[in-house]
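Escalation from tier 1.

The customer reports that the assembly of two entities below gives different structure tokens on two consecutive runs. Tier 1 could not reproduce it. I'm attaching the input and our single run for tier 2 to review.
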Amino acid sequence: MGNCLKINSSDDISLLRGDSVSIHGHQDQLPHEQLQQVFYPAPSVSIMPIPASSTTNSHMSEEDQIKIAKRIGLMQHLPIGTYDGTTKKARECVICMIEFCRDEAVRYLPCMHIYHVHCIDDWLMRSLTCPSCLEPVDAALLTSYETT
Amino acid sequence: MSELQSSLLLKKQLAELNKNPVEGFSAGLIDENDIFRWEVLIIGPPDTLYEGGFFKAHLHFPKEYPLRPPRMKFVTEIWHPNIEKNGDVCISILHEPGDDKWGYEKASERWLPVHTVETILISVISMLADPNDESPANVDAAKEWRESYTDFKRKVARCVRKSQEECS
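Tier 1 run:
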């Protein structure tokens, strides 16, 4: 294990296909129990270049645009729930260090760490790693699809 | 992450550090009106060559903090394999997240949005005690550290003395 972004595998969402789920919108085919309490809205980030990877030219290459689109597609598979106030382990979002409010929208990563949707989405656009446990989000997503 | 959220997060950290200071360093702002530019004073860690020194450094946070790392620069002269001669600190936790084109740094070793002034300084203090000679920023210091340790020690001792004079 190493990089958050392994060029050959991390963004290759085609690996997700062939399951019961297709990345391109057939979410009605998800197993029924997975739809309870969670929904899969688009990430709260817009398509824009990431400062870390943007170079001198302000126009993104087609390759970068595809990469961002793929990543947004992958992030759509991370469920969003509402903070119910009973979770003992997480009281605040470790990114902004602000306490969760009851009924606030939080995003669940496969490792079950939760964050404010806008905080974690901005981060995932830069690195597909859980800030708390460093689990690579893409690999964990693939594993969770394999086991269901 | 908006600029407002970034500044709130930094203000929170400053208040916390004022209330509960951490051993080994003190922290404040360069200019009271600019929360994105900090000045820290690192106390040379005990049982290291830097013991007894007082090293001033500046931290410049980007508006996107904590999604992007700050830059750190020693203002006090310091001789160390992982600190450039101009004072720039080169440690992996301050490296931008995202694609690692060269593939030699693990995600866990690079910037994470959970890092705070405190965790950054703890890493820097541990770097002072334990240089990483695999990716030196000051090649001459790294070479000396490996091959002529006596010269290395002498240079560090000079920096320590100088830092004490500057502080008194």
